[in-house]
Write a structure and sequence with these properties.
This protein is elongated. A hairpin with a 2-residue loop joins strand 4 and strand 5. It is α+β, with helices and mostly antiparallel strands. The protein starts with 9 loop residues before the first strand and ends with a helix. The protein has a 3-stranded antiparallel sheet with strand order 1-2-3, with helices on one face. A two-stranded antiparallel ribbon has the order 4-5.
């Protein structure tokens, strides 16, 4: 599958949860319909009760989870 051009309006939704970090890539068409280009998830580390714990290690772990899921969505959605 070909990669999408940089001019297409692709948006990423991101959820950082206590157990999972999820991302979805979507493209809105001219007729306002929606194409889901990809969805990915990874285990969440550094998050408790829906909040990133306020210590350096937890913040780094949460950042790494977000980076991982965003890289995965780029690959699966070909963006």
């Amino acid at each position: 599958m070909a990669r999408h051009s940089n001019t297409e309006p692709i948006q990423i939704g991101l959820e950082i949860g206590t157990t999972k970090v999820r991302a979805v890539a979507v493209k809105f068409n001219a007729d306002r319909s929606l194409n889901i280009l990809g969805a990915e998830e990874t285990a969440s580390v550094g998050v408790s009760n829906g909040e990133i714990r306020p210590d350096t290690v937890a913040m780094a772990n949460a950042r790494d989870c977000v980076t991982e899921v965003l890289r995965s969505i780029e690959d699966s959605a070909h963006i």
